[in-house]
Amino acid sequence: SHWGPLDDAHNWWLALGGMEWALPTQEHGTEWGLAWDYQVGEDRDAVLIVLRDAPPNRNRVSAEVVVRLRRGEAAWTIEPRIFNDADHPIRLQFWLNAMLTLGSQTVSPQTQFILPMQSGTVHSTGDARLPPSGGIILWPKSNNLDLSRYANWRNWLGVFASEVDAGFAGAYNAETQLGVARIFPPDTARGLKLFAFGSEFADRAHYTDDPSAGSGQAPSAQYFELWGGPNKTFWQA
After folding, report:
1. For residues 177 and 192, what is the distance between their CA atoms, to the nearest angstrom?
2. End-to-end CA distance of the chain
3. pTM
């Protein structure tokens, strides 16, 4: 993929779907390319998976993520911890990124995004109707576009919440009647980002593989990304 923090010759990222732990750099980080250790266990009324990216190393940070599914709940909790075993501070970014479609092979035009913000900062976009990278858009309506409705998205857009007004974010697919909500502590997890392709996105072959690809046609599948973390944006400032 030519997207990412490096030059085009060195950027690459494996889009596997599900949820990724993006650290220690901005965007998708580098930990997705490492073999993580995991342990499966039980904790009173729950089953849990403990994920660890690497053993402690004095030259880098390490991560541990506990995913807990309680009996009788249609939800799971995520408890991430970052360890710095070096003898000096280390600058890093840490994000959770859930890649979703909500019950369909691609993102339905009937998908609605629910974000607790009044404005956002554009990370990047291919939609000429919107400001370029670093520009401010209002949410949910900007330039007479209701961006909370995926049917109004023409091309890709990544947007950071300028400020979060509440500790939740989510999306709902009216076609499948399936939704997802992320609940988080807004005082510590201040970062919130939404990314999606849009109907005219022409680079899906870098990110998706579906039956239409085998017919010689370009892949039609899409997904959206719901990001969260302690950093407000990918930019160091």
Report:
1. 24
2. 25
3. 0.91
